[in-house]
Amino acid sequence: GCASTASEAAEESIVPAADQGALLDSVPEEFADGITVATQADIAPLTYTTDEGDVVGFDQDLLAAISDVLGVEITVEPVTFENLILGLESGTYDFVGDTTIKNERLEKYDMLSYLTSSYSVATLASAPALGDDVTALCGTSMGVVTGELISDYVQTAIDPECEAAGLEPVGLTEYKDFASNVLAVQSENVEGMIVDTMTFGYFQSGDAGADFAFNGPSRMTLSDSGYSFLQTQEQVLAPVIQEALTLLVSDGVYAELLDKYGLTESGIEGDPVLNPEATI
Amino acid sequence: MAVLETGTTDAKRLALAELNTRPRPAYGRYVAATVAVVAAALFIWSLAINEAVDWSIVGRYLFNKRILDGVVVTIQITALSLLLGFSSGLVIALMRLSDSRILQTLATVWVWFFRAVPVLVILILVNNIALLYPELGIGLPGLPMIIGVDTNAVISPFLAAVVAFGANEGAYASEIFRASIKSVPTGQFEAAKALGMGSTRMYWRIVLPQAMRIAVPPLSNNTINMLKNTSLVSYIGVSDLLYTAQSIYAQNYEVIALLLVACLWYLLLVSILSVAQSMIERRLGFDRKKKQKAVLSSEVTSNA
Amino acid sequence: MAVLETGTTDAKRLALAELNTRPRPAYGRYVAATVAVVAAALFIWSLAINEAVDWSIVGRYLFNKRILDGVVVTIQITALSLLLGFSSGLVIALMRLSDSRILQTLATVWVWFFRAVPVLVILILVNNIALLYPELGIGLPGLPMIIGVDTNAVISPFLAAVVAFGANEGAYASEIFRASIKSVPTGQFEAAKALGMGSTRMYWRIVLPQAMRIAVPPLSNNTINMLKNTSLVSYIGVSDLLYTAQSIYAQNYEVIALLLVACLWYLLLVSILSVAQSMIERRLGFDRKKKQKAVLSSEVTSNA
Amino acid sequence: MPETLLEAVGVTKRFGDDTVLDHVNLTVNKGDIVCLLGPSGAGKTTLLRCLNHLEKPNSGAVFLDDELLGYRRVGDSLMELPPRLIARQRQRIGMVFQSFNLFPHMSALENVIEAPTRIARVPKAEAVAYARELLDSVGLLHKADSMPHELSGGQQQRVAIARALAMRPEVVLFDEPTSALDPEFVGEVLQVMQKLAEQGTTMVIVTHEIGFAREVSARAVFMEKGRILEEGTVESLTDSPRHERTRDFFAKVL
Amino acid sequence: MPETLLEAVGVTKRFGDDTVLDHVNLTVNKGDIVCLLGPSGAGKTTLLRCLNHLEKPNSGAVFLDDELLGYRRVGDSLMELPPRLIARQRQRIGMVFQSFNLFPHMSALENVIEAPTRIARVPKAEAVAYARELLDSVGLLHKADSMPHELSGGQQQRVAIARALAMRPEVVLFDEPTSALDPEFVGEVLQVMQKLAEQGTTMVIVTHEIGFAREVSARAVFMEKGRILEEGTVESLTDSPRHERTRDFFAKVL
Ligand SMILES: Nc1ncnc2c1ncn2[C@@H]1O[C@H](COP(=O)(O)OP(=O)(O)OP(=O)(O)O)[C@@H](O)[C@H]1O
Ligand SMILES: Nc1ncnc2c1ncn2[C@@H]1O[C@H](COP(=O)(O)OP(=O)(O)OP(=O)(O)O)[C@@H](O)[C@H]1O
Ligand SMILES: [Mg+2]
Ligand SMILES: [Mg+2]
């Protein structure tokens, strides 16, 4: 993916004229020339590339709005997970998006939440209905995306319940990405998948997702996801971004963007918090 | 024809000797071929009419701009990495074949290292070298640099990709060059030296053209391999053909259709390479005597 | 020593003839070697003391259970795919060398196809074959199956991986076998036939042991390549060494440390393979005459 | 009447448009020593190779005893036998090549026991015993464990002869067995062949060693341009040739 | 007094513990034809190879004109010259190998012009003209565009001789130039060499062709076990050898 300036990506600013550049004064000197941010590439609807090659998505629009509010240019680079982390540590990026907030990570990074991340179970629409209780998953075969929190959650929270109820544990298979999960369900290699609600929602609203349906427990919320900043003494950027985000929440731009991408139910409640206490 | 009197030949034998011979019809071979052709046809047909494959989507994306850009990136990275890989591979092969223990050891370690480490790791390390060495320059570790430049300013992702794939390919190619140089008869080296050639000329004009005959098939294996492996550059933010297809299906979930798009392009690229390969092989096959070839192939058949 | 009278030899010449000769000191080579050794040492040292690399984490994960499981998966898939790849590659090579046009064409198309199509695609297609063909069985397309079984019951992800990698490797290996069989002198084929050997025995006992000498270096290139490429199985829900490392750093963000863990394992595995390779090469190097070798290596040196 | 062992009748071989053998007839009786002589390109090697089906004639037949070699009659043509049967026929015919063609990855002894143990399935101990006997008779028992590249040309050729004899063939074909050898080694190989001749081994030999041919009182067959021009004793051919080409040839090589 | 062109003084060569050449002295004067004779393993090839530094002596010196070949004196030993200078010296010495060693990927003409155009940087047209002249003199002008594998052994060796002459060397070394040839082709190669002899080319020849040596009235040098045992005219060696080994040898090869 090619780097784009956030304000270019959003064709038309949705930030009210009164707010544009409102926070210019609070931006630290060193960032006046611009801020470089990385987000993960290819996770619709947060960041994806259109057929014309434009990089778009909720992340892009939100950063464009932040850029407008700050009155400072923000350059966004959609990259892989590895480069997200390594680029942050090497100072290539001033901060990065799409990171899941965990207590362990808060020791090393400042994290600012801007979405809640939850997991839902999905199957083919033709599949028999599962109950809403998590024990409905006992003994089923489910796909998940590797490295996500849900695997831990299934093993530490759901499997014991299954055992308590005298049922088989959940049969988990980890696939590299969301699309691999979709294929596995379609070809019936697994019965269903436990995936990020946002991603599935976006998928289901498109042509390819028509055969799929939420089925079983949904919106199991484990943590927030947000921006990560390198935690160093002189880190002064995080509060500024928090301020900008707060402004966007309060004047409704944030809600508008959530709505645009069908993410309303994944929005954070109240004002964005820096370094929130995580459940895990 | 004057038939000399040669003793025992009787009428029955003479009668047989009048007949023309014919090769054994290879029934097994015909059966195998028929089965294979039918299987291939069924496979293609069943794919063509399969509902799971949406050919209209394949058609739509085949000449999509992003896909075409991906093809260009794939070709560029492959070509540049091969250049770097083949040239470094040649040097390393000569080092391994030299009689200097030091050079041998160095080359062996180099090959061992770069064959062992996944390209992905080299790629990520080179691209993020700024993390390990924020400044590149001349100087001793721990002391200030004598001349230094900001690492990120020097290493672009594209350069990182070429370096990583080139280093990897160099290690593999060196093994191929080593084996093929060893297959050139000693007499050729000696004839060149006796004419008063220096080593460089000897290698370029005499040894390598002959070594290439054995090296071309495995080297083109490597070339094709690299063509496909370039999809790893997606890890450092460059999109080649395969990754572009993946990134498109990450959004529209038409996994099979987009993989088929990528396949069709790879088939085209590999076809071009295969034609080039057989042209090169034919040009280099200077001493494959007709006679020898005929004998060889008849040997092989009777096995099949 | 009785020196025969041979005319013109004068005192000055006789004096020179008393002296021992010595080879030319290879200054350039010493300098190159020193530079390389120093560079390697600096690199290792700078890595060892680099703050970006947390060696305690490397140590912690090196024998982590998931990593060890990944190593086992890597080895299993590699071994089985090689078995399938080498045997199918041999058959395809013999088909390409046969004098049957049909067999040649079939083999050429097969090689073209499987060299061209990315393993990832074959992997995904084979694993999700149920999507294309929900039942496997005998019958004609469009008509009900005569005998049919549920596809998913037959194709496990592990089997899919072995089939995909095996088919891919087979195409590459066949090119290597083809080149190496062609390098065996015709006389060897004829001697075997003249003794009354059938084709199978001729190939197993006479031709292949000789062809292997040329085939081993590129084949071990392929083996090592596959060892590393198995990480693609993550797309079908199997975790090998490299992918396990990636999925761990997706959780704990220790990218460099976990890549180093994977590297260390690959270095170990490749070292074992390299030792095996050179042992095999030594065993197969039956006719590399001492004399020839000495001449060759002295040629090569003077170039370096 | 002598017993016919190997007989070529009307053997014709073309390579493309080149007719390399043109209705050649040749009879080899049991105990015969036949020397094929003639200029380069005459077709000597091709004829010899037809005698064990290494080369396939376009028409004509080769008989081993009373069996048709390599073919059987089907309708009005000769159809090639399956490879398995051809291999079996070849076991009755030994062959020694100009360039030795020892198997480079096997020791001298292994070269000799390869066919008996693998093809004839003779027990290993028995095969080894006979191989050692053969190596002894070619004077190379002490080199049994040497690899071919450790042997001189003459030694390699002697091992090749032992190998050809290991299957106890009824006839042995030699294609210029000494012409790739340094002159010093020619003698030792000819000596081994002479010994075979004395033991009554049936042999067909392409050679330029007229002296040797004379000594073993071989039947000499002179070939030119794919035909047998004349045959007789070596003396009759060298001293009173019927054809001018024969005279020319002997003038050149003697 | 004859002008010395190539001289070996006290040349000693060891392979491991084997002393293959033992203080050998040999003088080749301008116009000389020297034939090296002797049994296999005597060190003939090794000596010849020392004469153009293909083999590096352990001690002793080879002189080309007044230049030390391949070495210069440094302190009290002889240090090898840089490869560039050795290559330049070798251009003055032609060499013809037993196995021809033509470059298989070049036509006959290309083989001959390779060194002049690439090393001596003779203009292409000029090199081709001279190469055609040389090919003509070995009787192969009509094969100028043939590839080596399309030529017979004798033809290949004649091209190899033309190639060796293309750099106008002052002396030509031959290592058994006819021993890999079929007897029919031996004559054509010897004829070319005889022509060279008549033109006064300086030659050192390892050979077993005593007849040829006698005909060009070569100086014969008999070697055994790494030493020169005796030298003289061919007649003196064959008819009245001073050593028993010499007599034995000639008894064997004549
Ligand atoms: N496989 C082949 N393809 C085409 N032509 C061939 C083949 N084998 C032999 N010939 C031709 O057939 C003719 C006879 O060859 P052959 O080798 O039998 O002669 P020869 O008498 O053995 O000669 P020499 O003494 O040189 O070995 C030659 O003209 C040769 O070029
Ligand atoms: N590179 C080498 N390494 C070890 N030994 C060698 C080497 N070259 C030659 N020799 C040995 O040196 C001795 C002399 O060899 P050389 O080839 O000079 O003999 P030759 O007189 O040319 O014999 P021939 O007539 O067989 O060619 C032999 O014993 C040979 O085995
Ligand atoms: Mg012949
Ligand atoms: Mg010699």
What do you see in this structure?
- The complex is a heteropentamer, with one copy of chain A (280 residues), two copies of chain B (304 residues) and two copies of chain D (254 residues).
- Chain A contains nine helices and twelve strands.
- With 280 residues, chain A is α/β, with parallel strands linked by helices.
- In chain A, the strands form two sheets. In chain A, strands 1, 2, 5, 6, 7, 8, 9, 10, 11 and 12 form a ten-stranded mixed beta sheet that branches. A two-stranded antiparallel sheet of chain A has the order 3-4.
- In chain A, helix 2 (58-70) crosses helix 8.
- Chain A is globular.
- Chain B has a domain at 74-135 and 148-297: MetI-like fold.
- Chain B has 14 helices and three strands.
- Chain D has nine helices and twelve strands.
- In chain D, the strands form three sheets. Chain D has a six-stranded mixed beta sheet, sandwiched between helices.
- In chain D, helix 5 (153-165) runs parallel beside helix 6.
- In chain D, strand 1 (4-15) and strand 2 (18-29) form a beta hairpin.
- With 254 residues, chain D is of the alpha/beta class.
- Chain D starts with a strand and ends with a helix.
- The interface between C and E is medium-sized, with 20 and 33 residues.
- Strand 1 of chain C pairs parallel with strand 7 of chain E, so a sheet runs across the interface.
- Bound molecules: adenosine-5'-triphosphate (2 copies) and magnesium ion (MG) (2 copies).
- One adenosine-5'-triphosphate (ATP) sits between chains E (15, 18, 20, 38, 40-46) and C (290-291, 294).
- Chains D, E: Belongs to the ABC transporter superfamily.
- Chains D, E: One of its GO terms (molecular function) is ABC-type amino acid transporter activity.
- Chains D, E: It is found in: Cell membrane.
What does the secondary structure layout of this molecule look like, with pairings?
The complex is a heteropentamer, with 1 copy of chain A (280 residues), 2 copies of chain B (304 residues) and 2 copies of chain D (254 residues).
Chain A: E1 4-5, H1 6-9, E2 35-40, E3 48-49, E4 55-56, H2 58-70, E5 74-79, H3 81-90, E6 95-100, H4 103-106, E7 109-124, E8 141-145, H5 149-164, E9 171-175, H6 178-186, E10 192-196, H7 197-205, E11 212-214, E12 220-230, H8 237-250, H9 253-260
Parallel strand pairs in A: 2-5, 2-6, 8-9, 8-10
Antiparallel strand pairs in A: 1-5, 3-4, 6-12, 7-10, 7-11, 7-12
Helix pairs in contact in A: 2-8, 2-9
Chain B: H1 11-17, E1 20-22, H2 27-48, H3 55-62, H4 65-97, H5 101-116, H6 119-127, H7 129-132, E2 135-138, E3 147-150, H8 151-154, H9 157-182, H10 186-194, H11 199-229, H12 241-252, H13 255-284, H14 290-301
Helix pairs in contact in B: 3-13, 4-5, 4-9, 4-11, 4-12, 5-9, 6-9, 9-11, 10-11, 11-13, 12-13
Chain D: E1 4-15, E2 18-29, E3 33-37, H1 44-50, E4 59-64, E5 67-68, E6 71-74, E7 77-80, H2 83-90, E8 93-96, H3 108-118, H4 124-137, H5 153-165, E9 171-175, H6 183-198, E10 202-206, H7 210-215, E11 219-224, E12 227-233, H8 234-239, H9 244-253
Parallel strand pairs in D: 3-10, 3-11, 8-9, 9-10
Antiparallel strand pairs in D: 1-2, 1-4, 4-5, 6-7, 11-12
Helix pairs in contact in D: 3-4, 3-5, 4-5, 5-6
One adenosine-5'-triphosphate (ATP) sits between chains E (15, 18, 20, 38, 40-46) and C (290-291, 294).
